[in-house]
Design a protein that fits this description.
It contains 13 helices and ten strands. It has helices at residues 12-19, 32-36, 57-69, 84-96, 110-116, 154-168, 172-186, 190-210, 225-234, 241-255, 264-274, 284-292, 319-332, and strands at residues 4-8, 24-29, 44-48, 77-82, 103-107, 121-126, 129-136, 141-145, 302-306, 313-317. α3 (57-69) crosses α4 and α9 (225-234) crosses α12 (284-292). The protein is globular. The chain binds nicotinamide-adenine-dinucleotide (NAD). The site of nicotinamide-adenine-dinucleotide has 31 residues, from α2, α4, α5, α6 and α10.
């Protein structure tokens, strides 16, 4: 079964109708509650501490306890109102509570609206490992209401643009939109945001419908993510996921440069640079070791994606190739 997805500028009325139903449980975070708490204060809810550090089994357990204490049952619908962190953990809670209940996702960050809210991947981190405990559990409905985006801090905006840059090298439509409109997107032009959200969701939805469990085509959505997750771990989650995705795109395309279509590396550099991202100093051995622990790897080696629109594909490299690439990138700075 696919998720029903609504996209619009202000879907508050629709969201309120869901929240006002009898048997719901809202999960949100400490930042979102400040601006949008009025929307769900009368419903049973749990407010988690904002940020990636809360995406843990400990938070999962606290939410489960609160759901039990407040009488949630098998018919309860979990409603996630927040960014990708809230969506990932709420979806995972919904996949496990009493062996699985329905859930609704209301993404409030650009990153979540263009990417994480669609596709049913839910997870928490465990120690060193990102998204390692989780489940595929599609939300029943996704309400993508772009009005939420106007309270997003600048940095979170850049993170969302990061996932759009990723999609631009997988989808020609998103690429064309970014070539013409990246500046407008950075300025939060409403029409460009609306187009970007629709194009990204349309692309992701098509990929996920073809390969819901990531056995083939869906792997391309991990473009840049192997090195991104590794730097994120080594850097201690100091920045946001989307910023690390931009860094991952830069570094992976540098490492795979010989396998890319001519000019693609330079285009990636240009789009990433427009986002104003700088890669923190890193230890190539530590990053390469973190890549080795990535759950996407197989016996063939460390998994990465070669971006080439509809011909994008997975490739593998060895620890030594990856390490050499990272060292060379540092030397080229
Ligand atoms: N499930 C998937 O398919 C998938 C895909 C990509 C990323 N992810 C996950 O998504 C997470 C990153 O998501 P994110 O970038 O949305 O991070 P996030 O959820 O931490 O949100 C970023 C920050 O913005 C705040 N915020 C949220 N909405 C706001 C609003 N409307 N106004 C003001 N502040 C707001 C949050 O409180 C937080 O501080 C990562 O954990 C990543 O692994 C999942």
């Amino acid at each position: 079964m696919n998720s029903e997805i609504f996209i619009g500028y202000d879907l508050t009325d629709k969201i309120r109708k869901e929240v006002d139903k009898d048997n719901v449980f809202v999960i949100t975070d400490t930042n979102v509650v400040l601006s949008y708490g009025a929307l769900f204060m009368n419903a049973r809810h749990y407010v988690m501490t904002a940020g990636e550090q809360s995406k843990t089994l400990a938070t999962f357990e606290k939410i489960m306890e609160k759901m039990l204490e407040t009488g949630c049952n098998r018919k309860t619908t979990v409603i996630a109102i927040g960014g990708g962190v809230v969506g990932d953990i709420a979806g995972f809670v919904a996949s496990c509570y009493m062996r699985g209940v329905e859930w609704i996702n209301v993404p409030t960050t650009l990153l979540a609206q263009v990417d994480s809210s669609v596709g049913g991947k839910t997870a928490v981190n465990l120690g060193y490992y990102k998204n390692i405990v989780g489940a595929f559990h599609l939300p029943k409905t996704v309400y993508i209401s772009t009005h939420f985006l106007y309270t997003l801090p600048e940095r979170e905006w850049t993170c969302g643009v990061g996932e759009i840059v990723k999609t631009a090298f997988l989808s020609k439509k998103v690429y064309n939109l970014m070539i013409d409109g990246q500046d407008k997107l950075m300025e939060r032009d409403e029409r460009t945001i609306s187009r970007a959200v629709r194009e990204c969701i349309e692309y992701k939805r098509a990929v996920v419908e073809t390969d819901p469990r990531e056995n083939g085509l869906r792997k391309v959505l991990n473009l840049g993510h192997t090195v991104a997750h590794a730097i994120e771990k080594v850097d201690g989650h100091k920045r946001s996921h989307g910023e690390y995705v931009l860094m991952g795109m830069l570094l992976e395309s540098f490492i795979l440069k010989d396998k890319l279509v001519d000019g693609v590396y330079e285009e990636i550099v240009e789009m990433v640079n427009k986002c104003g991202i700088s890669v923190p100093d890193f230890d190539p051995v530590a990053v390469a070791e973190a890549c080795v622990k990535d759950k996407k790897n197989t016996n063939a080696g460390i998994s990465m994606i070669i971006p080439d629109f509809e011909k994008s594909r997975e490739t593998f490299c060895s620890f030594d190739e990856l390490h050499r690439g990272l060292v060379l990138w540092k030397l080229s700075r």
